[in-house]
Amino acid sequence: MSDSSKYTMADAPAGYAGEGFFATKLSDVVGLARANSLWPLPFATSCCGIEFMATMASHYDVARFGSERMSFSPRQADMLLVMGTIAKKMAPILRQVYEQMAEPKWVIAVGACASSGGVFDTYSVLQGIDKVIPVDVYVPGCPPRPEQILDGVMRLQEIVKNESVRRRSSDEYQDLLGSYNIK
Amino acid sequence: MALESAVIQQKVIDQFGLKVADFVQLHDILTFEVAPEAILEVMKYLKEDETLRFNFLTDICGVHYPEYAQERQFAVVYHMHNWVDNVRVRIKCFLPASNPEIDSVVSLFLGANWMERETYDFFGIIFKGHPQLKRILNMDEMTVFPMRREFPLEDGGRTDKDDRFFGRTQQNC
Q1: Class of the CATH-defined domain A36-162+171-179
Q2: Which residues of B touch A109 (CB under 8 A)?
Q3: Chain B stretch 100-139, residues whose beta carbon is closer than 8 A to a beta carbon of chain A
Q4: Where are the domains positioned within chain A?
Q5: Which of A50, A100, B16, B70 is most buried, most CB within 10 Å of its CB?
Q6: Angstrom distance (rounded) from CA A56 to CA A54
Q7: Can you give the pLDDT at residue B155?
């Protein structure tokens, strides 16, 4: 038997506890479940991807945040991590990967190149992935340390926890996707 | 006996006369200029001659010289390699800016296919007779030939760079 005292449990959302029952908001419970089981889809094209490999491995261990399973299929992934320079020729492929992901889906732009093009201010490089897909969290750095990537994941967890269950069907969200000409 | 540069030069001049010019030893490689319309026959001769035996096409690339005269604005540079004697030559063809066209050498070296596509992609040089002359490295939607000097290196859509904070002025950006 493992020593369960070593593990920290996710805190229960605010609610009303009584004898044998607990009442809270559905969106809090859904947010709690989603935030602690974000399955990552690593889209690694350069050195930030190497940092992410360290983040995945035992020392930093992204599995502690519920992201144990790397999904190398967009169909079973929640969190798209774009790590590295995206050439303009790669942009339609990245966009297709994003479109293939099922809702709800979130995007983290890891590193300077994915966030803004970085040092590659040139005709062949996409100047930030937010030119083609919506981004939830930007992680700065060139490349960022694994701690920074984990910080980005934790910030995304906060976003996910506080997201309304109705957001994905709201007009604002449809307008956001519409502004990227998705769907 | 190794293949001497003087021998190569003499044989090529004897064969092609005024179509070849400007023989010079540049960085230990014999370099000469060939009239663009003669490139296919010169290369065929270099490849198939019993003595010369330049059996391998190492590289094709383009150069843009905006300061040169209009009829010599673009250069296509070919590197050939004789594996038997381990001797190399460099061939330059100058093309006019108005009509940068040259014969494709894919019929002689299949490896020229992608190198000519790359040269077309970046310089807009047309290789006549190429089986599939389309962009290879840049995206198909690109409308410019980015290695030509008149096109800017930097992406126009960049929004987060303020030139004042990067020490750049009109002259150097």
Answers
A1: alpha beta
A2: none
A3: 137-139
A4: 36-162+171-179
A5: B16
A6: 5
A7: 78
Q: Phi/psi of residue A99, each to 5°? A: -65, -30
* ipTM (interface pTM): 0.73
Chain B residues in contact with A123 (beta carbon < 8 A): 138, 142, 144, 146, 151-155
Contact B153 A127 (CB under 8 A): no
Q: Does A100 touch chain B (CB under 8 A)?
A: no
What are A65's two structure tokens?
A: 């945040």
Single-letter amino acid code for the residue at A53: M
Answer yes or no: is B171 within a domain. Answer: no
Chain A contact present for B162, CB below 8 A: no
Domain that holds residue B116: 19-146
- Encode pLDDT of B102-157 as tens digits: 999 999 999 999 999 999 999 999 999 999 999 999 988 888 899 998 888 877 76
Q: Which residues of B touch A121 (CB under 8 A)?
A: 154-155, 158, 161
Q: How far apart are CA B116 and CA B59, in angstroms?
A: 9
Whether A84 shows a pLDDT value over 70: the answer reads: yes
Domain for residue B30, yes or no? yes
What pLDDT does B141 receive? Answer: 86
Average pLDDT of the residues of chain B: 88
pLDDT band at B173 (very low <50, low <70, confident <90, very high): very low
Residue range A87-104: mean pLDDT, rounded: 93
Identify the CATH number of the domain in which residue B25 sits: 3.30.460.80
Closest CA of chain A from B98, distance in Å = 24
Tally of CB atoms within 10 A around B39: 20
Residue of A86, A89, A130 to mutate, testing the B interface (most B Cβ within 10 Å of its Cβ): A89
State what percent of residues in chain A have pLDDT above 90. Answer: 70
Residue A111 CB coordination number (10 Å): 28
Cβ-defined contact of B154 to A123 (cutoff 8 Å): yes
Please give the pLDDT value at position A41: 94
Query: CA-CA distance, A100 to A117, in Å (whole number)?
Result: 24
